[in-house]
Amino acid sequence: MLALRDSPLFIAKTFEAIKIPTSIRSTVVCAAKGPRPRYPRVWKTNKRIGTISKAAKLVKSIKELSNVKEEVYGALDSYVAWELEFPLITVKKALKTLEDQQEWKRVIQIAKWMLSKGQGRTMGSYFTLLNALAEDDRLDEAEELWTKLLMQYLESLPSKFFDKMISIYNKRGMHEKMFEIFADMEELGIRPRISVVAMVGDVFKELGMLDKYEKLHMKYPPPRWEYRFIKGKRVRIQVQGQPNRANNYREKDEKDLNEDHTSEDNSEVMDEQFQQGADVILMEPVQISDDL
Questions:
Q1: What is the DSSP string of 3-33?
Q2: TM spans, by residue (predicted)?
Q3: Do residues 125 and 111 touch, judged by C-beta distance below 8 A?
Q4: Distance separating alpha carbons of residues 286 and 247, to the nearest angstrom
Q5: Residues linked to residue 27 through DSSP beta bridges, in sequence order
Q6: Number of other residues whose CB lies within 10 A of the CB of residue 196
Q7: Are the CB atoms for 75 and 65 separated by under 8 Å?
């Protein structure tokens, strides 16, 4: 039988005819059909824009506008017109940037526009709006927002809202409203922070209410320890640089208790001495009668 085999020269010429490209990115090698080109997908762009650059672009475009409400809202609507979903992360980052730059009017405009769209209705957004209204001296709007939040989220409202309202009233010298907020905190069972207790205590001291000042610090003494995170671990550290009224009150109470205890010991000793003296007095006539 005859066997048909290709000559080595013919095999070499076929390998020379097939040229395999050197670039690996644009080709995919198949097992049977050899290399074929791969084209980039239409729905994916090579240039990707992150939320940070989008937020910076939004801040730049908003700061160039005037303070007219319709103009700002129109620019924001046109910014999100081509988005498939509401760019909540981008808007939140833009709010944070404007808050760091203390552009309170822009913060109020963007926050109100976002809330009007039904987006970002979180406690963080409400607190940002409350802080911006207070910094922009819009006390009436801040009080209206506070009343609305207090009525809607009575038992779940975070304590930082109470602290913020107390600081707002303290800066403006509105002590009566400040005491009302503090009374609401105590009624709802919210423990105030050290700064709030010091703030209210200073007001009591200025108004000459020393009895309330002492009662306040007796009820909410400053903590002796605080917790910090050092290298990812929670470490307890003793508080320094604060007047440790708690220790003073404890020492005072211990002193009073020690005085009561020593007085009781002295009374017991005196009773024993009195009984011993009485026995001696009773024994003397017995001894005298025996001698007689």
A1: -----HHHHHHHHHH----S-STTEEEETTT
A2: none
A3: yes
A4: 58
A5: 37
A6: 22
A7: yes
Given this model, what pLDDT does residue 155 score? 86
Helix (H), strand (E) at residue 237: strand 233-238
Q: Which two tokens stand for residue 124?
A: 């963080």
Amino acid at position 110, single letter = I
Decide if 37 contacts 26 (C-beta within 8 A): yes
Helix ranges (H only) for 64-193 are: 69-79, 88-100, 104-116, 123-135, 139-152, 159-171, 175-188
Distance CA 51, CA 95 (A): 13
d(CA 35, CA 47): 27
User: Is residue 126 pLDDT above 80, yes or no?
Assistant: yes
Domain boundaries, the chain: 50-136, 158-237
- 28-57 residue pLDDT tens: 555 556 666 666 665 555 566 688 888 999
Residue 150 tokens, joined = 């207090």
- In the chain, % helix, strand, coil (3-state, to 5) comes to 65, 5, 30
* N-to-C CA span, the chain: 164
Structure tokens at 17: 């005819």
CB 55, CB 93: distance < 8 Å? yes
Q: Please state whether beta strands 34-37 and 27-30 pair in parallel, antiparallel, or not at all (unpaired).
A: antiparallel
**Nearest one of 161, 101, 114 to 134, comparing CA atoms:** 161
Rounded to two decimals, the pTM is 0.64
Contact 162, 181 (CB under 8 A): yes
Specify whether the CB–CB gap between 144 and 113 falls below 8 A: no
Closest to 170 (Cα-Cα) out of 146, 140, 134? 134
Torsion of CA 86, 90, 96, 99, to 10 degrees: -70
**Three-class secondary structure of residue 227 per DSSP:** strand
Are 151 and 176 in contact by the 8 Å Cβ rule? The answer is no
